[in-house]
């Protein structure tokens, strides 16, 4: 049985039959999503722009 650690709280959860994977529960999934939107969106946007530049050359 494959197990993963919840990125939000570190709790081990089963990968199979887990609707919130890789998180342990809906609460952790939403917490990580809001964190990503608030803190890391700008970083992701930079990476996307770099990839577009490579494909154009
Ligand atoms: Zn969790």
Automatic annotation (TrEMBL):
Keyword Zinc: yes
InterPro entries according to UniProt: DNA_gyrase_inhibitor_YacG, Znf_NHR/GATA
Biological processes, Gene Ontology terms: regulation of DNA-templated transcription
Pfam families (alphabetical): YacG
This protein's UniProt keywords: Metal-binding, Zinc
GO MF entry, a single one: zinc ion binding
Domain of life assignment: Bacteria
PANTHER family given in the database record: DNA GYRASE INHIBITOR YACG
Record HAMAP family: DNA_gyrase_inhibitor_YacG
Name the UniProt record assigns to this protein: DNA gyrase inhibitor YacG
Organism: Thermovibrio ammonificans (strain DSM 15698 / JCM 12110 / HB-1)
Lineage: Bacteria, Pseudomonadati, Aquificota, Aquificia, Desulfurobacteriales
């Amino acid at each position: 049985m494959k197990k993963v650690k919840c990125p939000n709280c570190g709790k081990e959860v089963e990968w199979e039959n887990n609707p919130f994977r890789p998180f342990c529960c809906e609460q952790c999934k939403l917490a990580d999503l809001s964190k990503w939107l608030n803190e890391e969106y700008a970083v992701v946007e930079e990476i996307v722009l770099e990839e577009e530049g490579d494909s154009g050359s």
